[in-house]
Amino acid sequence: MAKPTVHDIAREAGVSLATVDRVLNGRPGVRANTIERVNDAVRSLGYVRDTYAANLARKTQYRFAFVLPDGDSQFVDTLKLALKEAMAAQLADRVFVKVVPVQVQDPHSVVRALNSLSAEHYDGVAIMAPETPQVRDAVARLKEAGLSVVALVSDLPTSGRDHFVGINNLSAGRTAGDLMGRFVGAIPGKVLIVTNSMLSRDSIERRLGFDEVMSERFDHLTILPTIESRGDPARMEAILLKAALAHPDLRGVYSMGPGNRPLIGALRRSGRIAELTVIVHELTPLTHQGLIDYEVDAVITQNVGHLVRSAMRVLRAKCDGVAIYEAQERIRIDIVLKENLPT
Amino acid sequence: MAKPTVHDIAREAGVSLATVDRVLNGRPGVRANTIERVNDAVRSLGYVRDTYAANLARKTQYRFAFVLPDGDSQFVDTLKLALKEAMAAQLADRVFVKVVPVQVQDPHSVVRALNSLSAEHYDGVAIMAPETPQVRDAVARLKEAGLSVVALVSDLPTSGRDHFVGINNLSAGRTAGDLMGRFVGAIPGKVLIVTNSMLSRDSIERRLGFDEVMSERFDHLTILPTIESRGDPARMEAILLKAALAHPDLRGVYSMGPGNRPLIGALRRSGRIAELTVIVHELTPLTHQGLIDYEVDAVITQNVGHLVRSAMRVLRAKCDGVAIYEAQERIRIDIVLKENLPT
DNA sequence: CATAAAATGAGGTACGCACCTCAGAAATCC
DNA sequence: GGATTTCTGAGGTGCGTACCTCATTTTATG
Q1: A179 contacts in chain B (CB < 8 Å)
Q2: Rounded to an integer, what distance in angstroms lies between the CA atom of residue B302 and that of residue B335?
Q3: Cβ of B340 and A171 within 8 Å?
Q4: For chain B, what is the domain count?
Q5: Which Pfam family is one of those matched by this entry (chains A, B) (predicted)?
Q6: For residue A4, what are the β-bridge partners?
């Protein structure tokens, strides 16, 4: 009835504690036959290793690196803040976290950072960086070296990462489309989409989802050509202002990525921000204030606290070789309006 | 640099291990003066008890009771399901949970259940039940007996409960109002509110929030007198059907509590469900399907997984006498549309 | 000041596990 | 069948904590 321990397994399998230990920890010196006996006992008794006792005995720490974009992104800042909080809370749980800042626009910077993470100093890595062939290779190398790797916010499929912690961007785009269509209402008009770059996988997926919903359910709205800022706020602001003034029947603006500051600035300058339905991504101090001021109508976001905690849980589980609790690790797409802003 | 242990504290405070232990575990036989010295050492070294090692040594289980409404509420069912999953995941963490079903409409049933929970068999209790004087007293008794108590979903203020795990219902109502106003659009019309009973604290608060937002921002919409089902589905269905047919300019329906099945049934029968903006609470199989079928426009919900996990974390923290990590325990108000339904 | 009472120290055991050593048993090889 | 190699058992130690006992010191009490 009580939780089975290694002693119970030893008894059940008719072997000694030492042998159970060898099997459980993959140490050599056990006949295949005996290994089977032990594993059978584990299964039949439903033994699960007490990871806390194990860590206590092993006196290890989990050493994780979080590779995050450097620079002044409010989203990354809130992410870092959440990470800091989580670290404080997890300190008791033998988790050591190091933040590694990288210049995400430069794949070499990312690769250099990843290559600097050896299995000697780290047990796992969480990476938030755009998908490039170089990064994929570097991740594969980390995996090979025995590190656990999770992709954070932005997925790195085919890189061999253990897990992706983040939202489904197709659904995020569809959600934005749903809200846009409903908020704008039945009157025909135009919708503007802005992004940093249409090359990133996230933007492509969000755009795809948005388009799907618009054509399925709101075809009285016309989508204008996408505005790409390419990381240049001034450029973004200028083009946006021009577009806002050029289309008197513009009804809504959907911003798919970072760069909400120049967006809001331009819309304000155009004098039309109040009448437009503005939907952006990621809840940050800026977008939070935007909601309060009725300048932003909806924010589609992912809870940064959940992101970092999920990343840590998954990394720990991978290190322990334990199955993850899927339902808990699914990051939801949050819709935030003025009224349900978290307090 | 390394994590301080009880040994470090003993050395720092200039006392023996036994004394540190007495202080940390509140055992008697230590002079006030000495207690202070130990506590100072704890503070200055930043000692945090390793709860896992502690539990290992204490070889206790956390024994929690979840007092939940009996009967066929889909919301409670999903809550129970989440509880079951959480139990499976927490089994490794020495948590034992017992579900105690009660007839919530009968305060005596609740009180009887609560009184049956002795400190001998339980360390903490999570309660989901309406607030009545009898229940308040029973909770106070539990606290007195040394149990940790959290109110779940529905708060029990002034009962002395340690914590409330659930959403802010005023904000939930405001959020519903915000969505209703935006989804319905600029055309004047009427809005219907239905609930089980306007006597429950939750309904009152949601209604208050909804009204606030409607009068602040959407005063072209008129709110019809509230329909109360009083737990009678047939009655609800009949009144609702009548109301839906009596007001051709009805634009939206807001359901504040349980009883979504007769609601949707009546609206379907009225033939107007597609044109109405329907906003309900709690994501269940029924409302999930309603979103998919375009019968329900938005669901305002709280994540049951978070609810139970938060309740467990809080109960554990209270039992350990450890501070809770506020940010993680704040239950958000989730807005679910067809497009961001969790997969 | 003697004595009882309270406070403290020293030390042990246990929890479930990892990791180590060494001796002895079993299997394999020539 | 003896020598060698491969397995296995018995046992110990330590991780950070709880909880227990028993002696000893300190403090309060009459």
Answers
A1: 337
A2: 9
A3: yes
A4: 3
A5: Peripla_BP_4
A6: none
Which residues face B100 on adjacent strands? B67
Segment B298-343, tens digit of pLDDT: 999 999 988 998 999 899 888 877 778 787 889 999 999 999 999 8
The boundaries of the domain holding residue A102 are 60-166+304-330
Whether residue B260 is contained in a domain is answered as yes
Is residue B277 domain-shared with residue B295, that is, in the same domain?
Answer: yes
- Residue A228: CB partners within 8 Å, gap ≥ 6? A194, A195, A196, A197, A198
Tokens of B325: 């990590």
pLDDT tens-digit series, residues A230-273? 878 888 888 888 888 899 999 999 999 888 999 999 999 999 99
CB pairs under 8 A between A and B: 106
Residue A338 lies in a domain: no
> Measuring CA to CA, how many Å separate A315 from each of A99, A218, A323, B319?
15, 42, 11, 28
Give the angle B268-B81-B134 at the CA atoms, nearest 5°: 90
CATH number for the domain harbouring residue B235: 3.40.50.2300
Q: Which residues touch strand D (CB under 7 A)?
A: A 14-19, 22, 28-31, 33-34, 53, 56-57, 59; B 2-3, 5-7, 17-18, 21, 24-25, 47-50, 53-54, 56-58
Is B327 within 8 Å of A305 (Cβ atoms)? Answer: yes
Return positions of chain D under 7 A from a protein CB. Answer: 6-12, 14-21
Tokens of A28: 């050599």
pLDDT of residue B257: 87
